[in-house]
Amino acid sequence: MGKSSLDILREKNFTEMQLDRILEMAWEDRTPFEAILFQFGIPEKDIIKLMRGNLKESSFKRWRKRVNSGVSTKHLKKRNSDITRFKCTRQKAISGNRISKR
After folding, report:
1. Is 36 helix (H, G, I), strand (E, B) or coil?
2. What percent of the chain is predicted at pLDDT more than 90?
3. Phi, psi of 71 (to 5 degrees)
4. Which are the contacts of 41, defined by CB distance < 8 A and separation ≥ 6?
5. Does the structure show a pLDDT above 60 at 96?
């Protein structure tokens, strides 16, 4: 059987702040799964498990419906090729697994 969201957290030793940021990035429509993989080393299937384990069932279903919709930009392949950045131009610098202070 696959890893649970708790197993993923234990394996990566995420802090509460890092987990909150991962969930926030996953919830945002403009942040692709590849950006989360780059910053935190978590593939899409594990992000889905984290979201399932940390959201109410109705919120998770709403998120999955949005992610799988035809207009979603959560996957780089579905994105407009003119968008070449991971983050908003107004967002503070993020490098590797470090999150800048807000």
Report:
1. helix
2. 24
3. -100, 5
4. 12, 97
5. no
Segment holding 99, helix H or strand E? strand 98-99
DSSP structural state of residue 102:
-
Backbone angles phi, psi at 38, to 5 degrees: -65, -45
The pTM of this model reads 0.67
CB 26 within 8 A of CB 51: yes
Q: Are 39 and 94 in contact (CB under 8 A)?
A: yes
Average pLDDT over residues 63-69: 86
Question: Tokens 């470090």 — which residue?
Answer: 98
Three-class SS state of 98? strand
Distance CA 96, CA 98 (A): 6
